[in-house]
Fold this protein.
Amino acid sequence: MRPLAVAAALLSGALAFTIPRAGAGITGPVVHIADFKFVPATLTIKAGTTVTFINDDSDAHTVTSATKAFDSGGLDAHDSWSHTFSTPGTFDYLCAVHPYMKGVITVIEP
Amino acid sequence: MKREDFLRHVGWTGAGLLWTVSSAGTLRAIASAAETGPLTFVQISDSHIGFHQAPNEDVTATLQKAIDAINALPVQPTFVMHTGDVSHLSKPDQFDTAKQLLGTLKAPFLTIPGEHDMLGDEGKGYLAAFQPRDRKDPWWSWDQSGVHFIALVNVFNFEKNGLLGREQIDWLAKDVASVKRSTPVVVFGHVPLYTVSREWGWFTEDGAEALALLNKFDSITVLNGHIHQVMEHVEGKTHFYTARSTGYPQPAPGTADAPGPLKVPPDRLLSTIGYRTISLDVHARTANVRDLAFA
């Protein structure tokens, strides 16, 4: 995607960034796991971006790629886990404890 | 008659003559019962070692409570089956703690995994800790005192739990093919084999296929965990019983927005967790299931 397109996407809200609730040192986008949902469930980022997932629930969850390209393993309450998405593409993921919890990360050219 | 059939027949008749269940549901011994005793076993489930939130910040202590209660039973059970979620996060130290605690049971100890035992490593840590070396698959069956026991694993597919999968269903078809229909069958699984709540994922996608294979039997008892609460359900000849957790309760379907730990007040916790004893009257082909809370 050209820089102009990225800017347009940003303005249109297609690029969603959430400000981390807590945790010094987190600079990239954050996906919260709250009330058995990934929030936001869809996220578009540029390749090379590190996304941090934070489990706000008291139950355990995971962030597990449908193709097993990445897997957080079990995340306890308040645990966080970060992953750098280096290649463009669409990455479906789910919680292996509750597979009906689903999310998508779309990675675009930097 | 093949030797195996003969032994099965003898075992079944022997146990059946000795014990019966009274109308009150309590086990009653009849003539010479003391010689062999009834076929009793214990189910514990969902210990979630490593969990440390409300409503139970010490699930190790409550698992210990279960073990102490079982070890104090006047007649030791034939075996103790843990129906999964031994650990909370599949961490090696959680499996170690669970294994050490469960190793203090006086009765033989068996286990099947829950989805919490499969996280991040596809079950390698769980299998290393609990799978006997001489067992090929994590699912298996055995015959004991005239009963055919089947331990199923429906948490191996991380995208769909519960799911048994083609390989296991094919195995089950072969397994039950040679078992007589009059043989009482007891099935263990982690996730309920029937649909408790589709919305919360409390069902086994191909459970109906497995249950169809079991339908030839006169008596089928299915014992599950996963949902941390007692439920009974009957479909034809099949009786389903889901068990309490040894760690914490979960809400009943429809009473909360999501599953997960139910934050009961501290003084109520022990009345919501516990263990279960099962006595099988092999002759009448009935199971006497007793759910025992810690308080």
